[in-house]
Design brief:
Two copies of one chain form a homodimer.
Chain A: H1 3-13, E1 17-20, H2 30-36, H3 41-53, E2 59-63, H4 65-68, H5 71-88, E3 93-100, H6 104-117, E4 122-125, H7 135-138, E5 144-150, H8 156-159, E6 163-164, E7 176-177, H9 178-186, E8 195-199, H10 204-213, E9 219-221, H11 231-238, E10 245-249, H12 251-254, H13 262-278
Parallel strand pairs in A: 1-2, 1-10, 2-3, 3-4, 4-5, 5-8, 8-9, 9-10
Antiparallel strand pairs in A: 6-7
Helix pairs in contact in A: 3-5, 3-13, 10-11
Amino acid sequence: MTYKELYNQIKKKKSFLCVGLDSDVSKIPACVKEKFGPENSQYEFNKAIIKATAKYTVAYKINTAFYESEGARGFEQMALTVRYIKKYYPEIFVIADAKRGDIGNTAEQYAKAFFEKMNFDAVTLSPYMGADAVIPFLKYKGKWAVILVLTSNKSAEDFETLKVCGVSGEKKSRSDYLFERVIKESARWGDKNNIMFVVGATRPEKLARIRAIAPDSFLLVPGVGAQGGTVNDVATHGMNGSCGIIINSSRGIVFAGCDKKFASDAAAKAKELAAKMSLFVK
Amino acid sequence: MTYKELYNQIKKKKSFLCVGLDSDVSKIPACVKEKFGPENSQYEFNKAIIKATAKYTVAYKINTAFYESEGARGFEQMALTVRYIKKYYPEIFVIADAKRGDIGNTAEQYAKAFFEKMNFDAVTLSPYMGADAVIPFLKYKGKWAVILVLTSNKSAEDFETLKVCGVSGEKKSRSDYLFERVIKESARWGDKNNIMFVVGATRPEKLARIRAIAPDSFLLVPGVGAQGGTVNDVATHGMNGSCGIIINSSRGIVFAGCDKKFASDAAAKAKELAAKMSLFVK
């Protein structure tokens, strides 16, 4: 999917909402497990959530952990979910929240897994190992690397917000935060058409700083809702002329309801968030 | 597996070799694919390699990328491989080279995937997101987090070797490399009994520096062979009184041979590396 196609969808739906399908089997309503069997419950739960929320949503994010913890059958249900979205809602952007980060021929294998075997549009990547961990993903036209920059968790301050010194051979500038250096360095690897950045909604003051370094790039923003971020703050500090942000909510939507009403409760929650977003979409 | 059990195995086998089962289907000999079918070839290839190399080997490392790229069936063959090793060679340490790094309830799902669903002893983790990405794995007794510190790839220099400044509230020390800060910080999360570090064999001069900061910890060292590191250099700069290093070789062993002789060629290569190591094991 291109930058323009994504932006067009945002304008059309007046929403920049991403729904995170963190479909933890232990939290899936009993009615789903009883009707379809526990081994099919992630896929069936996802289908119901997708049907109910697609009109408010420009993206779905699938965190691989919740599927891998169910073994090969979980992995298969993840693949089936992507196939379902791509079949019935081909305009929706699908992100593998995999946070992978490996190099060379190994990174190529991950790219093959997420972009070829499964038809994800994007995959989240950890930048720790540098360019080698990202570049193999950028070789796929129309696919995206979504690089961890400043995450929403407390221990983001262990390393992401450390100040780093200039590298040799480079004119010494004011010291950057590590997360700023990641953004600057990634400009050598790709551009706004194939790289996005993950920035937590819990740090709106940093969001403006990031927007200044990466004026054109899309930011994927988790942490709205339970973690304390708000649509207002994120939109105010993070938007650019092409929207430039996708806000993710996972549990706050997919586990909003209980038992038989789970899908309509999820839809209501998605609608509520999208309504807040619509005020910001020109 | 405990620190002591791992060390005892090293003394018994006079080897600190880890064989990396990077079982890329496109490189698996035709005879295996023909006999067992391509969809079983990773598992059958692994079994043959394990049978041939187990006596020279204290650990197997399974890089998840090569299995995920084959979809759910690949994922299943990975799980079957761990089960096979644990059934027939329970003394051997089994590492998921997954380089995961996620937080909170997501990290718990990965721990469940690798330690409960599959019976890995250890999993490699990226430290970018800080403590939150590691601590859930340390709650499992006898299991290990293997944290990326200084990797063997060229772009390790993008971020891992940046100098970082002191954090607020801490007495300003001489500036550390980011990878040093990761080691120091991780001392707050666990100890030599549940944390190891990944350090590339291609940087022996840094290995001594790391050993000085983490005198007691095991280091998992890839990069011997094709990438240019040597057993001699790594052992000289990296060993401690309890050996303290595990050297990994993947392609150099498992794809050492061609077609029908693949297992015996792999065994010969493993034997050769173990013989070099035996000179260093007291």
